[in-house]
Amino acid sequence: MLNQQQIKNQFESLATLQAIQKQAYQMLVQGLATTGFSMREWEILVYLEQHGQATASELADAFMVTRTLISRNTWRLIQDNLIQSQVNPNDRRVVWLSLTVNGQERVQEGVRQVQENLKTFNQSHDLEKLTKQVETLSQQLAKIN
Questions:
Q1: pLDDT tens for residues 35-64?
Q2: Cβ(56)–Cβ(70) under 8 Å?
Q3: 20 to 30 A Cα–Cα from 19, which one of 26, 109, 130, 138?
């Protein structure tokens, strides 16, 4: 059974981890600012690049959102010729989504743009803050073990 100090240490670690996640998210949002993609659209494109193809249901499960929301996001990406849909010939209820050649190029371009944006933003303070949070988390985890 955990004592009160151990429980306190675990909650502190969780809070630090959440702060790290928030900071990393904010940095990514800043990096995406000039790409024209929403965070969800970017996540879908990167997921499809990494996995090759997926159904709307798989994407909804992966991002823990409704299938309707995924369908709304993928519709714009289909209209922009970044992803394509293909009906499974063996089961017409299954529709596979995958990147088009244009989508693959835009993902690579987006990655370069995000990296460049992160370099040009005044990130030194943010990176320093993030580094300190990771160090704090490491120390807190050492206390738990």
A1: 888 889 999 999 999 999 999 999 999 999
A2: yes
A3: 109
Tell me if 99 sits within 8 A of 107, measured CB to CB.
yes
Taking only the tens place, the pLDDT of each residue in 76-95 is 999 999 999 999 899 888 99
Cβ burial of 49 (10 Å; 0-12, 13-18, 19+) is: middle
CB 77, CB 59: distance < 8 Å = no
What span, in angstroms and rounded, lies between the C-alpha atoms of 37 and 40? 8
Collapse the DSSP code of 92 into the 3-class scheme (helix H, G, I; strand E, B; otherwise coil) and give the result. strand
What confidence category does residue 21 fall into, taking pLDDT thresholds of 50, 70 and 90?
A: confident
Measured in degrees and rounded to the nearest 5, phi and psi for residue 93 equal: -75, -20
